[in-house]
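Shipment paperwork, digital attachment
Item: protein structure file
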Amino acid sequence: VGGGRGTHPESLAGGALHLGPPGPLTAGTRPPGAGYRFRRVGALGSESRRPVRHGKDGRRLDHVSIQCADVGASAAFYDVALAPLGGQRLMDFGSVIGFGVAPKPDFWLGPTTTGEGFRESHLAFAAPDRAAVRAFFDAAVGAGAEPLHEPRVWPEYHPNYYGAFVRDPDGNNVEAVCHTPE
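Attachment content:
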């Protein structure tokens, strides 16, 4: 389901990367079953393209990539901000860096290669509990992030939505969120 050049870790690295379980990284390969087949489905009488299958855990998103003005500065920020959520740097190709929970990176940083001007993204990272949301906020602000919203319950979303929001070095709105009660 990709986007344009520069929006996917494969295009940021200049070739396809094996993003599966640990093992040799081979240019031009994908893990078995990584492709999507599409079928036509009607939506209000129209046809659209929709994936037939999901990841093994049922998630629809496999990974996300953002372009950064300074990959090194952004990577240093996410090293600190994602640690309380269990995230870490898993792959580092210099100008393209993958973060996640082992064994697979699901959040990628790369250099700005397309478009002009800034387009803010909102990224929400799952936290296992409310303490992790608070730790994320403290770590991110301690690493220089602009605080947007301190940790709190957001009842307009649902009664147990607990989140905190900061601005990353590139100006993106980054959130840690927990959906369970205290």
